[in-house]
Design brief:
single chain; about 625 residues; 23 helices; 19 strands; about 45% helix
């Protein structure tokens, strides 16, 4: 059973979360754990997502840990699982009681209430952990250099080869440049402008390095939890930064309502290519020690926090090898299933990494190479449409290798049954439905299939998997749509819109059938994950209005030109009308004149003189004919 020490307790309560702490304490004192069913506002305090900042860390066996600023005990439980002894120090009495009653069943926990400056600890520690505490140094230590004082105090409590772990916001995090409010004061751009006389202060990487060095520490290592240290689901390092194709799908979590100036994920690619991700990381987890060998060799961690307990695992890249470790004991069967799937793929002559089952985790060979999505992105960047099409063809053919032609006998939905009934089509042999291109690595021209966690008992059409794989590519590389339209790819493989509707519905049922998603927390995560970019939207509207104004001005100018041309045409038309009328009068005049001439001729022909001169005209005609003949003979 845990213990609690009030010997150094002070009455002052410099930091608290209000009435929610009393509600939680009442529940914990009753002997049960608080949940979001008690109060949805408990979520941030009780969710195990908070543990992701540290639950993967390789604390050495039999270690002792000092937790400074234990808060309401969000991290304390996972520390107790990984240490021989944990001392959790909390300044606030009410918060300390929350820690104690929340984790009362932990036999290796001691809670000490009071200001760490005044507490006389009986021992030194292997690890000292501060999660969201260091930034409060000014508030708790009225010293000339409170941050240096605090770190030196911690150093005095650390064993010779011990490690200090500090999680803190980066004042220059990219989310703050895009308009997210400063975490403690709720002001936009505060950390960027400078904290002035505020008694809470965060730092950039160089500032932290300076403090660490000033306090006599020789070694440090930075981890970059994303989206931040409070609700992390991925942890990067300089040895494993976000891939270009990962960036569009990165999740985020808003602490309170946020209005961003732009989607900061869109600028990360350039930041990473210029080797500045560390400067712009939203948060840090920093290892500090005077023994370089005491620092962890872990380069990457990915958690699966949206899943139910039996599917929650941490994927860890440590010293060039991947490990999948279940977060809870219930998850052990899931990692065994991954191994079984891998062995089944080997039997189908599919290249897969070597997987070894250990006592409580699996060890996975790290295959060197780039995944298919990365290669498509590279070919797109080189404007090589032919190569992009070839890689997509290779993807289709690879899935086809995992398929067999048959009539579906096990349907996910009635809609699918109506669409495919009695049709002989290609079906995935093993019911795998996580065959997206980022799980296919290319090594020296060979395709390797990795990370196959999920399969179903239902028959899955090849085209279903191909459609969602292509959709994944276009989500990872949005700009590809203008280069090679997705519909063009669908048409090439004869995937109709009717099929897409069927596949979309099937996808919902596949997820439900596995019961992998924790539907209790999903709505909360979704709510906090709303990327509110009202300013950007307003800017788009303004830009659109400006563009419309320009187009309207151009149209008005064109209208004026048309009016001028129309006026000229009307004038020409009037001239033609005038000419027509004049010509009509002239024609009538000529007709009248012609009629008069014809009448005169008739009068002449009917006169006596015309009749009397007829013989003379005949003789004259003959004389002309004879003369013409004589002239011809000469």
């Amino acid at each position: 059973m845990a213990s609690i020490n009030f010997d150094y307790c002070e009455e002052a309560d410099l930091y608290n979360s209000g009435e929610i702490e009393e509600e939680l304490l009442k529940i914990y004192k009753s002997g049960r754990q608080a949940t979001i069913r008690d109060n949805p506002d408990f979520f941030y305090t009780v969710t195990d997502i908070r543990e992701n900042i540290i639950n993967w860390y390789p604390f050495k066996n039999g270690s002792t840990i000092l937790e400074v600023g234990g808060g309401l005990g969000a991290i304390t439980g996972t520390l107790c699982k990984n240490a021989k002894k944990v001392v959790s120090n909390e300044y606030s009495r009410r918060r300390a009681e929350n820690i104690y009653y929340r984790h009362k069943d932990k036999n290796n926990l001691e809670v000490v209430v009071g200001n760490i400056e005044k507490i006389e600890f009986k021992e030194k520690f292997d690890y000292i952990v501060l999660i969201g505490v260091f930034e409060y140094s000014k508030r708790f230590f009225k010293k000339k250099n409170p941050f240096h004082f605090f770190l030196n105090k911690l150093k005095s409590l650390l064993k010779e080869n011990g490690v200090i772990l500090i999680a803190i916001e980066n004042r220059y995090g990219i989310k703050y440049f895009s308009g997210a409010t400063e975490d403690h004061y709720g002001e936009k751009y505060l950390g960027l402008y400078g904290y002035k006389d505020y008694d809470i202060e965060t730092f950039g990487k160089y500032q932290l390095d300076t403090i660490i060095s000033d306090c006599g520490f020789s070694y440090s290592k930075y981890y970059y939890p994303y989206p931040d240290y409070k609700m992390p689901y991925i942890i990067y390092t300089e040895n494993r930064l976000p891939l270009d194709t990962e960036i569009p799908g990165l999740l985020f979590y808003n602490h309170g309502e946020q209005v961003y100036d732009y989607d900061y994920r869109k600028v990360l690619s350039g930041i990473i290519s210029n080797k500045q991700f560390g400067f712009f990381a939203n948060s840090f987890l920093i290892e500090i020690s005077n023994n370089q060998n005491a620092l962890s060799s872990i380069d990457y961690v990915k958690t699966s926090y949206l899943r139910t307990k039996k599917y929650q695992i941490n994927t860890i890249l440590d010293n060039g090898t991947y490990y999948k470790i279940p977060k809870y004991d219930e998850g052990y069967q899931h990692i065994k299933n991954i191994l079984e799937t891998n062995n089944s793929l080997k039997k189908l002559d599919i290249n897969v990494p070597k997987i070894t089952l250990k006592e409580k985790y699996i060890e996975i060979e790290n295959i060197n190479g780039k995944n298919l999505t990365e290669l498509i992105k590279e070919s797109f960047s080189l404007n090589n449409r032919k190569e992009v099409s070839k890689l997509i063809d290779n993807y289709y053919n690879f899935i086809k290798r995992l398929s067999t032609k048959k009539i579906i006998t096990s349907y996910l939905t009635e809609e699918e049954k109506k669409f495919f009934e009695n049709q002989k089509i290609y079906i995935l042999k093993m019911g795998l439905y996580d065959l997206h291109p980022s799980n296919i690595l290319i090594n020296k021209g060979n395709f390797f299939l990795i990370d196959q966690e999920w399969k179903t008992k239902y028959d899955i059409p090849l085209k279903y998997m191909f459609y969602f794989g292509i959709s994944y590519i276009y989500e990872s590389i949005p700009e590809l749509e203008l280069f090679l339209p997705k519909q063009e790819v669908m048409s090439k493989y004869n995937i109709t819109q009717s099929e897409v509707v069927v596949y979309s519905n099937m996808s919902k049922h596949i997820s439900d059938s596995g019961q992998q998603i924790d539907n209790e927390i999903l709505p909360i995560i979704s709510q906090h994950g709303i990327f509110n970019i009202e300013k950007e939207e307003r800017k788009k509207i303004i830009d659109n209005c400006n563009q419309l104004n320009i187009e309207n001005s151009n149209l008005m100018e064109l209208n004026n030109q048309l009016n001028i041309e129309n006026s000229n045409l009307m004038e020409l038309n009037n001239q033609l009308k005038d000419n027509l009328e004049k010509n009509t009068v002239l024609i009538e005049t000529l007709k009248q004149s012609n009629e008069e001439k014809e009448n005169e001729i008739l009068k002449i022909m009917n006169s006596r003189s015309w009749k009397y001169t007829k013989p003379i005209r005949q003789i004259s005609k003959k004389v002309r004919k004879w003369c013409k003949h004589e002239k011809a003979e000469r």
